Amino acid sequence: MSATLLAGPPAAAALLEDARARASRLARVPQLVLVRVGDDPASVSYVAGKQKKARETGLQSHVHVLPEQTTQAELLALLTALNADPEVNGILVQLPLPGHIDEKAVLDAVHPSKDVDGFHPVNVGRLWSGPQGAGQPGLAPCTPQGIMALLDFYGLEVAGKRAVIAGRSQLVGRPLAGLLLNADATVTLAHSRTADLAAVTREADFLFVAVGRAHLITPEMVKPGAVVIDVGINRLEREGQKTRLVGDVHPDVAQVASALSPVPGGVGPLTIAQLLANTVRAAEVQAAGQL
Q1: Running DSSP on this structure, what letter comes out for residue 249?
Q2: Residues with a known catalytic role
């Protein structure tokens, strides 16, 4: 057996095309505002990439760049103003923030209807209260939603299947568990304290790995024919050579699984695409007055 590779770019393109079509039906072009504090090189690159993709998708995009020494009060004041601005549909605060700023307080300050990252407690509660239909309130984190979009693009149905998630982070594992439950999967959420992780992962029809440990999942940990989604991003250093990006799943798993998302080029492209889809969804919800 050799696994089918679940390439992210075509799935992301389909998601963006749908977002572009939905945006065209609105009375006003949706606007995404990105907020960056400081000049962390990775953050500069991520924000630039998000803004570029937003404009390519036909959305308005604006970036607020604040100095490293910005106080928490100043940042919260900006978010209050953006929350009140009817022209702004989505707000994303790029993480990490400088150490003197409480990230949770900042993320909680974004209005739930404009929280396109899906981190606000209200949106977390809405996710766990059950499926949200089109036009209803509720925004979920971008990477887990992107994973669901990837499965949908390739016609992989999770309903009635055993899904195992390795990794319980607030960014991926926990919200992904909620989305899978809403899609009628039977879900196990494994983590660093799980006894005999291999025995648990071998039960999975769908295995999702978001741990941040290079090549953690090896072939003997995977049920033959399982669908494996690798969310890990790790840099491996090789003496005298450039570092390379690898996932949490060993490449040899491709000989056991029926389908496998590659790293890079798997889940990654879906994250930004879902951010823009969330921005359009936010604009739809706001236009309908369902905040």
Answers
A1: B
A2: 50, 94, 117
Q: Supply the Cα-derived Rg of the chain in whole angstroms.
A: 19
What's the whole-number average pLDDT of the chain? Answer: 94
Could you report the per-residue pLDDT of 7-45, keeping only the tens digit for each?
Answer: 999 999 999 999 999 999 999 999 999 999 999 999 999
Q: What was the pLDDT predicted at 134?
A: 46
DSSP 8-state assignment for residue 217: B
- Which H or E element spans position 62? strand 60-66
> What is the CA 193 to chain-centroid distance, rounded?
24
Whether 274 contacts 92, CB under 8 Å = no
- The 10 Å Cβ neighbour count of residue 60 is 17
Measured distance CA(112)–CA(134) in Å, rounded: 16
Placement of tokens 């696994």 in the chain? 3
* Longest CA–CA separation in the chain, Å: 58
Cα 198 to its chain centre, rounded Å, is: 25
The arithmetic mean of pLDDT across residues 120-140, rounded, is: 80
Give Cα 108 distance to the centre of its chain. Answer: 18
Helices (H) and strands (E) counted in the chain, each on its own, are 9, 11
